[in-house]
Design brief:
Blueprint (H helix, E strand, L loop, with lengths): L2 H6 L12 H4 L2 H18 L2 H17 L4 H8 L3 H14 L2 H23 L3 H12 L9 H31 L10 H21 L4
Length: about 210
């Protein structure tokens, strides 16, 4: 896998084949545990709790074949956001609040990735569709919800890949672009991607 391709998967993660206990865990139970843990982290918003959850995700990654290196890579795309949040909260609300917010964010991201990296995307989407099936009674199509989530999961890593490719292209020309200089080409690429995705959906009878 190329460096750029690897970076595209850093944030949300992609399925990693395996036979660990987490891979074999029933989807409903696994999703409930992950969702419950994320809710606990966000509601308590306490840095010791978040730090414990973060450490547990690293331990689980190491014991389920995902690897600590992959766990560390999942945090790399967040460094700029983490830096901004840390500086803001240290200056405005104090170091303790900064630790609460930043560690909660990192814990939720790594918890979510445990679900995404140990569950095939089709199985995950099928589970979501089944969960949303009662909404048919009020006129909501669960299949469309599943399609929207699937597109989101695929599109976010793609967008990070575009940004990485733009930075690599600039570095190859020995240019260090400012973030604002990447906005225009990134927007153009994203609009083109959305247009092609829309055409593909229409071709399949989905509008």
């Amino acid at each position: 896998m190329s460096g750029t391709a690897a970076r595209r998967d850093d944030l949300l993660g992609t399925y990693v084949p395996g036979t660990s206990w987490l891979h074999r865990c029933p989807l409903g139970l696994k999703a409930a545990l992950v969702l419950g843990s994320c809710l606990a982290v966000m509601l308590l918003r306490s840095w010791p709790v978040s730090l414990t959850a973060l450490a547990l995700t690293a331990l689980i990654s190491a014991t389920t074949g995902l690897g600590v290196r992959r766990w560390v890579a999942s945090l790399r795309p967040l460094w700029f956001l983490v830096l901004l949040l840390t500086v803001y909260h240290v200056l405005v609300t104090g170091p303790a609040r900064a630790a609460d917010v930043v560690l909660s964010l990192l814990a939720v991201v790594t918890l979510t990735r445990l679900l995404l990296t140990t569950t095939e995307l089709p199985r995950l989407i099928d589970g979501l569709v089944r969960l949303c099936s009662p909404l048919r009674r009020v006129g909501v199509d669960p299949e469309r919800i599943g399609l929207a989530v699937s597109l989101m999961i695929r599109s976010v890593p793609w967008l990070f890949g575009v940004l990485s490719s733009l930075r690599d292209a600039a570095a190859a020309r020995t240019v260090r672009p400012r973030p604002v200089q990447l906005v225009t080409p990134a927007v153009i690429a994203t609009v083109d991607y959305a247009h092609r995705t829309g055409e593909a959906l229409v071709a399949r009878g989905l509008e």
